[in-house]
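User: Could you write out the 3D structure of this protein bound to cobalt (II) ion? I've included everything you need below.
Assistant: Certainly. Input first, then the structure.
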Amino acid sequence: MTNEQIERRLKELKKLGYIVPNMKILKSRVQLDGIKASGDINSAVLDYVVSKVEIGMSTEEIDDMVFAKTKELGGIPGTLNYEGFPKSSCTSINDQICHGVPSKKDILKDGDIVNIDITTIYNGYYSDSSRMVMVGNVKEETKKLVQVAKECIEVGLNEVKPWGFLGDMGHAVNEHAKKNGFSVVREVGGHGVGFAMHEDPFVSYVSKKGTEMVMVPGMVFTIEPMINMGTCRIRMDRQNGWTIYTKDGLPSAQWEVTVAVTEDGYEILA
Ligand code: MF3
Ligand code: CO
Ligand code: CO
């Protein structure tokens, strides 16, 4: 479809009451390639760092590796100084849902699970993805949480297609988590990405089929559901103003990809 055809279709859908993206957030092929180049760095940094994680390492050491590797590959760590965030990565351990702030004081121990979430800026393009690492011997139920959180990415990706709804994707993710006895965080979600770290739309993983924004070729957003073993309720660390914890202290797991909607489905960019 040409841009004009897309624009016309979006106008029609808007008239019918659907939520549609602004043309400005849609990316051209050249721009998608730019985000992919950024995403390749992001993935290479994650590959490297994940291979190095071990018992006794502090999350600050992880962050130092993220910084050094990103620079070495020609990128800029996107979270560093972003709205006052002090580090090049988010490292969220066990009951930390997201936005864990790397620290010398947080030492990984046997049985921990940790999410490492990084954003790379390269040639002005932003990419964002994260992975879980299991440290030493992790309890069976916790392993299952990590596995189901990973499956949620696949289940969500299956719903990414042009002229579908983000709500179809969110619904599928929520159903998969619930089916396995887990819950999904409501207040924090995914986001558009590419020209900036956080763009429209907000992406929910507890949404309903046929709701939320229409997916359009050239749209780029993250799939990053936070899956909790227990309650979906959250609490914020008031001391650092960033880190979000589970209310009940049970673990939470998250994986993240940056995905583009294409003419015939989707493409993973990071
Ligand atoms: N990478 C995070 C995300 O997935 C954003 C982190 S913003 C920060 O949206 F400031 F907390 F680093
Ligand atoms: Co992220
Ligand atoms: Co994100």
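Residues 117, 119, 128, 130, 256 surround cobalt (II) ion (ligand 2) (CB under 6 Å).
User: Perfect, thank you.
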